[in-house]
């Protein structure tokens, strides 16, 4: 709970939060799926095709997928991106500053942020058998004005 | 020997000391960093040494790696 | 029984480390197929073995996974029968085998004849190590494992294995539970392995410490049970360093002997003519205790060097109630030369002390009472099996791995093994048959291992 409050506070002070060049202020009005990933993480490989399909399906409804890369060896991240060729937004946070601020404790970790900039859901890990539930959460937040 | 082992295990266990961030497990995730990076090779070795020497086994399992999910 | 896995306590290793350690690498919906071939050979025309293995594993969407492994083992060559080399020729005639061969020939029983091969009779030249030449056997092993993550950070593993060869069958089940702590930086695991073996030696179970060739048997088969417990802690020390400790306990009860191994009985270093057969000398079948308790302590470190190299240092200490203590040091360096090519030089040092009942031969008078044709052992246990002697051993090897495409790999490994005698010499009279003869057969062996892994 404390983590979410901390997160909300830091998002509301978004003008100060420019870590990894993500301006949350500018993103208000959209539902943001913020994902922290790395090329060496197995479940992350599974999550990319799913994130791509969410982006294709709901992008026009206001879903913004932002995948923040945490690779310590940039060539490995580039190779991964060449292979998966995502069309959604990729950011880089090799120093882990942004991941630290968001309290990332598992790889991968993702957050669903609503249109007012409030973080509503945190997913620890990516589970292929739970994607239907993940999609429901996105749809619910998109329905909110 | 048993006492020493238990002390060592306890110290390591309490050591929650690891300050490794989840995204710093990139090197540990590489296949060459797995505790048993070639299980078939380990099986051959275990078999050969078991047949020719008096000791066997000893290896454990689990842990390390990327720590994902 | 060289290179025969009579105690398949490796089930723990098979069923668990193959899965718990590699979960992160495998995507669901595909089978990972690993295959390997071992070609093993010992110096002096001793044991040769060819062993192909096929392993299939698959991870499912709920992060559970299964593993199936099939091993086939074909052994040929010869193996020491436990008797000492001597300055005179020695002929080994197993009366029971000879009788059965005669009967089988009369009955035209091909199957029975094949079982005995040349085991009826063979002669060893003076100075040569007595090797039983009829060493052919085939072994098949099937093992299965299933891993499943449970709630609260626990992972469970269950498995079973079945092994069958001409004179030995083994069945085992295993279970393990692992729990992660500290964001998966620490893993504690507990495993249990239960094994039941059935031994059906050719010619029946020889009565311990009775004369070789006399045909005294205690039935046609015997059994053994083994219980193994393993407690382990794996700890991520820092971004580059992973450490593991394991404590293992093993209790084995039942028939521990090698039914084909004998010991030479001598009088002041001279071979004694067999009272029942003037064409051969006197040897007794070995005997070991009915129980064996072992404890092992294993410590392994993996340290990442640079971006892709790794140094692997492992140490194992083992002690048991047969007075065998051993130290093993295992060093491997993984040198990633380029993206798809690596080299792994390897060195292993091993040293063990002898079992308290290990002896290269028996002395008439103090260890065996020979009065006319009456032969009685005065010791309860005795074995000259080199596996139970004191020795050190070095292994050196090199492995090369080549990636073929994105998800398959070919590897080749060559290893050389050499034992060094560490036993104290048992006194023999100057000029006797055993004078100057080697009391421990130092094994030299080498093997080639070919591996191929791919996703399907």
Automatic annotation (TrEMBL), chain A:
Note whether S-adenosyl-L-methionine occurs among the keywords.
no
Q: Which UniProt keywords apply?
A: Signal
What span is annotated as the signal peptide, if there is one? Answer: 1-19
Name the Pfam families for this protein.
Answer: Redoxin (PF08534)
Note the InterPro entries from the entry.
Answer: Redoxin (IPR013740), Thioredoxin-like_sf (IPR036249), Thioredoxin_domain (IPR013766), Thioredoxin_ResA/DsbE_sf (IPR050553)
Q: Which residues form the Thioredoxin domain?
A: 6-143
Does Transit peptide count among this protein's keywords? Answer: no
Q: Which domain of life is it from?
A: Bacteria
The protein here is known as TlpA family protein disulfide reductase
Which organism is the protein's source?
Answer: Thalassolituus marinus
Automatic annotation (TrEMBL), chain B:
**Locate the DUF4266 domain: which residues?**
20-69
Q: Which InterPro entries match?
A: DUF4266
Cite the source lineage: Bacteria, Pseudomonadati, Pseudomonadota, Gammaproteobacteria, Oceanospirillales
> Pfam families recorded for this chain?
DUF4266 (PF14086)
Output this protein's name.
DUF4266 domain-containing protein
